[in-house]
Design a protein that fits this description.
By secondary structure, the chain is of the alpha/beta class. It is built from nine helices and 13 strands. The protein has a domain of 214 residues: Rossmann fold (3-Layer(aba) Sandwich), CATH 3.40.50.720. Helix content is 39%, strand content 17%.
């Protein structure tokens, strides 16, 4: 039986990943300090005999008694709303925290996957974004605590691979949505859905002409596992290339939730990327992976879940 450590396993993506790994017959050790994750995300897994929780802050060095085959390092806040609230914690999770996860992988001779992000491309001057693009990041802007620490994390992962011969995988994750996002998380999906189902105005930042490409969480998790299981060591974009404007996204949420909320427009935050769309040619070629869930389908499931939480 193989064992996977999932840091950030009580978070949105992490909890879905733990679930799928368990269903594939792995033993899963979730490491989380609940900074942005929630106990309820893993409540249903606590009874499973192959699941255990280590409540721990990964910025403090850690190990586990079991042998470990895979380390999925997902522990990091991810909502832009957190960038101004807990910037130092974000930078430490993505530097010291990543180092501690890498040290665990070295100690256990495990393969490690780092959850990187499309944010390493910053305000991209190349569109769609390929892995070969080096990015355009403001080092002192509102998003820099996240963007720059995630870039540092990639460099650290590659330094460990070179120095220790560690088997590393780097997933550049693009905007992902689905059940178990925190209701007050501040990202566009929870905001728009909560506003739509409560009959409140939909808060569009700027004119809503900026674009994003939204990937449903089950597709994303399948991509992470395919990358971990592959023999490809360089960064790979994992996301859905279907690009839409934020205004179109709002209108889709309104349509699917049958909401009569109105659109309202406020100022655009600093350095908010104007366009974002992954080029997933590499993932298709190297992993045989591509997303399957259409936005309308994924949004319907997500809206249903948010509706159940609201009651
Ligand atoms: P999330 O906030 O739901 O999950 C992050 C988890 O990490 C939480 O459970 C949190 O409590 C935990 N955590 C944070 N700091 C920690 C620490 N120091 N020690 C232990 N646990 C800690 O966010 P998410 O959306 O599930 O993101 C998961 C990962 O994927 C993150 O690394 C994020 O940067 C990356 N990512 C996510 C997206 C997305 O659209 N969701 C996009 C790009 C990258
Ligand atoms: N956004 C918005 N209204 C909101 C929240 C977000 O218009 O209530 C916009 C935000 O400006 C960005 C996009 O939606 O252009 C995606 O934002 P999110 O915070 O989800 O993630 P990002 O892709 O910026 O990291």
């Amino acid at each position: 039986m193989k064992t996977a450590v999932v840091t950030g396993g009580a978070g949105f993506i992490g909890s879905h990943l733990c679930e799928v790994l368990l269903s594939k017959g792995l033993r899963v050790i979730c490491v989380d300090n609940f900074l942005t994750g929630q106990k309820q995300n893993i409540e249903h897994l606590m009874q499973e005999k192959n699941f255990s929780l280590l409540e721990h802050d990964i910025t403090i060095s850690f190990t586990v008694k079991e042998e470990v085959d895979f380390v999925y390092n997902l522990a990091s806040p991810a909502s832009p709303k957190d960038f101004s609230k807990i910037p130092i914690k974000i930078m430490l999770a993505n530097s010291i925290g990543v180092k501690n996860s890498l040290d665990l992988a070295v100690e256990k001779k495990a393969r490690i996957l780092q959850a990187s992000t499309s944010e390493v491309y910053g305000q991209p001057l190349e569109h769609p974004q390929k892995e070969s693009y080096w990015g355009n990041v403001n080092t002192i802007g509102e998003r820099s605590c996240y963007d720059e620490s995630k870039r540092f994390a990639e460099a650290l992962v590659f330094s460990y691979a070179g120095k220790f011969g560690l088997e590393t995988r780097t997933a550049r994750i693009f905007n992902t949505y689905g059940p178990r996002m925190r209701l007050g998380d501040g990202r566009v999906t929870p905001n728009f859905i909560m506003q739509a189902i409560s009959g409140k105005d939909i808060t569009i930042y700027g004119k809503g002409l900026q674009t994003r490409s939204f990937c449903f969480v089950t597709d994303l998790v399948a991509g992470l596992i395919a990358l971990m299981e592959s023999d490809y060591g360089k960064p790979v974009n994992i996301g859905n290339p279907h690009e839409i404007t934020v205004k179109e996204f709002a209108e889709t949420v309104l349509k699917i939730s049958k909401s009569e909320s109105k659109l309202s427009f406020t100022s655009l935050p600093e350095d908010d990327p104007v366009r974002r769309k992954p080029d997933i040619t590499l993932a298709e070629k190297k992993l045989g992976w591509a997303p399957k869930v259409r936005l309308e389908e994924g949004l319907a499931k997500t809206i249903e879940w948010f509706g159940q939480q609201k009651r």
